[in-house]
C-alpha cells in the first residue's frame, strides 16, 4: 500500500518514521515533508492547504491511505474532500475539526455535555471583556478563538496585561481573524498533561500518557510556544486520572460530538489540568500534539497502520495498541528569537553524531536543505527524542543527543521531564 502523510513538521516526521516500519506499506510520500522526512519517504512539493493539488496527487499515485498531520487542512475540509472522491483518509472531518478550530465551540460543547473545564465567557467587543476581567480577577487566561499555531493563548498576570491583550486581539488584529472573538477563562492551578485517544466515532482507544512543555524557558517561564519538549509516560496521569479522563472527558466528548451531528473520527487530544484529584480540560486539539507525537510513537510497540486504517474506515473493532515499557523524552531545539520573529538559514552541525547514539532519533521540524547542508527554516527546528528504561535514562539520552548538535543562536529548555523525576 502507498501512504501519503500531509505536513512537514516534527509530528509528520514521527508519523512517517512509524508508518514506514509497517509491513503493510510499500511506499510513503509526504507533502511538503522536510529533509529529515526525505530520508524515509518521497517529499512532494505541495503545501498543506493545497487541497485540490493533494487530491490530484493521491489519485494519480493511487494512494491507499492519506494521514493528515496539521490542524489547518483538517479545518479546511481535506477529509471531507478525499472521502467524497472515495479515498481513505485519517483525520477529523471539517465539522468535527471545529473542536480545535473554534475555542468558543469547544467550551460551549464541554459546558453542554458536562465535560469538566474552567469557567469562561466569549467576547467580540473590548468593554464587556474588560468588565469580565475585572469580575474574575488575575491571573486570567485569554485565548484567540481561531487557529493561531499554538500561540493564541495568553496568561495575563496583571489587569494591565489582560486589558492590553484583549485590545491587541479584538482591536489590534494581533492574531488576524483567529482573534476577532476571544474566550476568557479562569486561571487553573495544577500540572498539565496531554491525553490522546484514537476514535472511530464510537470506540475509543487511549494512547499512552504524555506531558508537553509549552513555555519557552526553564521552570515554565516566558511566553507560550507550540511546545518545547514532551515526555511519556507522565506520572501525573495515575490510573484513577486515566479512568476519569476516559469516562468524563473522552466518552462524553465523542458522544456529544455525535449528538451534535459532528461525528468525530481521528485522534482526539485533550489538554488536562490536574490538581490532586481535580481534572479539568484546558483545550481540545483535532490531531496529534507536536511534540507529544514524537515520544508517543517512539514508545508504540504495535504497527500504527491498522489503527489508522480502522479509524479511516470507521471501525476500530479488534484493534489494540501495545506499548514499550521504556520511557521517551523529546527535547525541542529552537531557532534564535522563537517564539517571536526568529532567524532562518543557519547551518545545523552534528546531526550525524547525534544519529549514531543508540535509542535516539532526531526528528526534523523546521529544516531545509541548501548547498549540501541542512539549515534552520522554522522556529522549532529539531525534536531530539531518546528512549530509556526510566524517564531519567530517557532524559539523559535525549540531552546527550542535544549536546552533539549546534547552530548559531540555538536555544532549548534544560528541564524537559524534570516534573516526572519529582514524582
UniProtKB/TrEMBL annotation:
Coiled coil: none annotated. It catalyses: 5-phospho-beta-D-ribosylamine + glycine + ATP = N(1)-(5-phospho-beta-D-ribosyl)glycinamide + ADP + phosphate + H(+). Residues 107-313 form the ATP-grasp domain. GO terms for molecular function: ATP binding; metal ion binding; phosphoribosylamine-glycine ligase activity. Its cofactor is Mg(2+); Mn(2+). Belongs to the GARS family. This is Phosphoribosylamine--glycine ligase. It comes from Geobacter metallireducens (strain ATCC 53774 / DSM 7210 / GS-15). The lineage of its organism: Bacteria, Pseudomonadati, Thermodesulfobacteriota, Desulfuromonadia, Geobacterales.
Amino acid at each position: 500500500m502507498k501512504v501519503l502523510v500531509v505536513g512537514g513538521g516534527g509530528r509528520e516526521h514521527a508519523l512517517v518514521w512509524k508508518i514506514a516500519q509497517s509491513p503493510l506499506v510499500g511506499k510513503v510520500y509526504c507533502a511538503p515533508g522536510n529533509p529529515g522526512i526525505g530520508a524515509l519517504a518521497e517529499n512532494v512539493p505541495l503545501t498543506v492547504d493545497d487541497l485540490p493539488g493533494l487530491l490530484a496527487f493521491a489519485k494519480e499515485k493511487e494512494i491507499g491511505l492519506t494521514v493528515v498531520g496539521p490542524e489547518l487542512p483538517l479545518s479546511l475540509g481535506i477529509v471531507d474532500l478525499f472521502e467524497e472522491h472515495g479515498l481513505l483518509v485519517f483525520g477529523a472531518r471539517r465539522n468535527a475539526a471545529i473542536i480545535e478550530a473554534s475555542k468558543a465551540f469547544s467550551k460551549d460543547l464541554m459546558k453542554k455535555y458536562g465535560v469538566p473545564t474552567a469557567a469562561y465567557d466569549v467576547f467580540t467587543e473590548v468593554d464587556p471583556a474588560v468588565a469580565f476581567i475585572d469580575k474574575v480577577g488575575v491571573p486570567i487566561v485569554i485565548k484567540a478563538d481561531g487557529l493561531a499555531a499554538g500561540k493564541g493563548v495568553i496568561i495575563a498576570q496583571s489587569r494591565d496585561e489582560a486589558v492590553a491583550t484583549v485590545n491587541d486581539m479584538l482591536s489590534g488584529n494581533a492574531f488576524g481573524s483567529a482573534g476577532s472573538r476571544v474566550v476568557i477563562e479562569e486561571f487553573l492551578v495544577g500540572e498539565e498533561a496531554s491525553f490522546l485517544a484514537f476514535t472511530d466515532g464510537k470506540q475509543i482507544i487511549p494512547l499512552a500518557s504524555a506531558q508537553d512543555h509549552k513555555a519557552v524557558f526553564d521552570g515554565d517561564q516566558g511566553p507560550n510556544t507550540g511546545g518545547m519538549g514532551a515526555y511519556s509516560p507522565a506520572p501525573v496521569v495515575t490510573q484513577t486520572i486515566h479512568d476519569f479522563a476516559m469516562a468524563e472527558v473522552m466518552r462524553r466528548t465523542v458522544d456529544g460530538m455525535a449528538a451534535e451531528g459532528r461525528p468525530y473520527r481521528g485522534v482526539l487530544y485533550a489538554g488536562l489540568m490536574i490538581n490532586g484529584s481535580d481534572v479539568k480540560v484546558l483545550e481540545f486539539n483535532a490531531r496529534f500534539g507536536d511534540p507529544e507525537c514524537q515520544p508517543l510513537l517512539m514508545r508504540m510497540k504495535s504497527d500504527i497502520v491498522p489503527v489508522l486504517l480502522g479509524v479511516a474506515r470507521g471501525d476500530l473493532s479488534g484493534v489494540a495498541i501495545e506499548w514499550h515499557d521504556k520511557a521517551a523524552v523529546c527535547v525541542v531545539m529552537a531557532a534564535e528569537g522563537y517564539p517571536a520573529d526568529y532567524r532562518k538559514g543557519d547551518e545545523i552541525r552534528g546531526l550525524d553524531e547525534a544519529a549514531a547514539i543508540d535509542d535516539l532519533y532526531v526528528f526534523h521540524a523546521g529544516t531545509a536543505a541548501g548547498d549540501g547542508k541542512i539549515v534552520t527554516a522554522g522556529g522549532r527546528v529539531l525534536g531530539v527524542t531518546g528512549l530509556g528504561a526510566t524517564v531519567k535514562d530517557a532524559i539523559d539520552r535525549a540531552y546527550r543527543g542535544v549536546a552533539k548538535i549546534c547552530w548559531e543562536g540555538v536555544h532549548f529548555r534544560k528541564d524537559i521531564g524534570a516534573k516526572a523525576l519529582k514524582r
